[in-house]
Structures are given as C-alpha cells and as structure tokens.
Specification:
There is one protein chain. By secondary structure, the protein is an alpha/beta fold. The chain has a single domain, classed as Leucine Aminopeptidase, subunit E, domain 1. Helix content is 40%, strand content 17%. Strands 1-6-5-2-4-3 form a six-stranded mixed β-sheet, sandwiched between helices. Helix 3 packs across helix 4 and helix 4 crosses helix 5. The radius of gyration is 16 Å and the shape is globular. The model has no long low-confidence stretch (mean pLDDT 97). The chain binds ligand AR6. The site of ligand AR6 has 25 residues, from strand 2 and helix 1.
Amino acid sequence: MRNVLHHIHVVQGDITREAVDAIVNAANSSLLGGGGVDGAIHAAAGPELLEACRPLGGCPTGGACITPGFRLPARYVIHTVGPVWHGGFEGEPQLLASAYRSSLLLAADNACRVVAFPAISTGVYGYPADMAATVAVRTIAEFLAERPEDSLPQEIRLVCFSDASRQAHENALQRLREKLRAQDESGTC
Ligand code: AR6
C-alpha cells in the first residue's frame, strides 16, 4: 500500500469547532438527532440541520449522506451510521469500515479537501476504542492509497474527544506505520 499516513492527523477536541470542509456525524439511522457527538453537532449547527435531515428519510448502517453545516464553521456535515457493538461477530468491523468509506466517498464527490471524523461507534454504540481506531485508520489509509495522489480529500483529521481516544488512534496509526515500513523493507506491497 502506498504510504498515505501523512494525510491523517490525530487531534483532541470538539469536532463542532473544526473549520474544515466537512465534519462527519456519528448519527443513528433515523438521522433525526440524538446524544453524544450527534447532539453536539445539531446544537451547534442550529435547527436548520434537523430540517435538512428530515427529508433524507434516514440512512442504513454503514451508509452516509450530506447536508450543509448551517451555523457550524464546517461547510458540510456528512451523516453516517456506525454499527452497534454486539461482540464483534455480527459484521461490526465491515459496517464500521463502510461508514468511514461511504463518508470519504461523499467528501470526494463534494470536493472536500479537509474532513474531520469523530470516533464513530465508540460512545453510545459501545465499539471498543482500540478496535474501532484500528478499523478507522486502516480504512482511511486504504481509501487514500487507492486514489491518485492529488485527489480529494487531502487531509483527514481524527478528532478525539478524550485522551484515551486520542491515544487509541495514535497507537493505531503507529502500528500501521510500522506495518507499512516492514512491507517496504521486505519489498512486498
Ligand atoms: N467532538 C468530538 N467527539 C465527540 C464529541 C464532540 N463534540 N462528543 C462526543 N464525542 P457517540 P456512537 C465522541 O456516542 O457511539 C447518538 O445518540 C465520543 O466521546 O456520539 O456512534 C446518535 O444519535 C465518542 O468517542 O456516537 C446515535 O444514536 C464518539 O464521539 C448514537 O449516539 C462517538 O460517540 C451513536 O453512537
């Protein structure tokens, strides 16, 4: 895999304050708001966001859809639905990867250069933080690596709310960095 990890940045903070092209919302399949990051995004964007979500008619787990950001500093909100954690044997990794991938595709289709993600599914939906971070980092890296170098998005920000979440993402990024280095040295790709 082409090394694209310099396009991925782990930061700690509140995603509603990110002045980027798009922030991703960890929504539920109704798209009508909720708690956690979803609640924070709706509160910061204003009631127009709910009115924009209503006609979308919901979103399946692993899918994504896009609205304007309204009062947020971000231009767009990409709403995705991660899986509820049931122990890992009900397709959770594939569904979580699909949530990241669907969001990235929408970002690319809407010419977004910088996209910020929260740690999808790791709050109310109970996905263990380390495992989710591994899926997140790998899926984003694979997506970027399979596209031309100058294509959009160019920068992915993983916005972690807690110190533990930031640590989980930094560790996942480091593990992938080491794996790519080992592949590079052994001449495989
Ligand atoms: N900025 C960045 N990350 C945040 C913020 C914030 N302002 N607030 C919370 N997080 P969750 P889920 C982190 O529960 O697990 C909602 O009710 C949080 O610490 O928001 O995908 C939806 O409507 C955690 O690491 O999303 C759904 O019903 C991560 O965001 C359900 O929760 C995700 O936690 C979705 O559950």
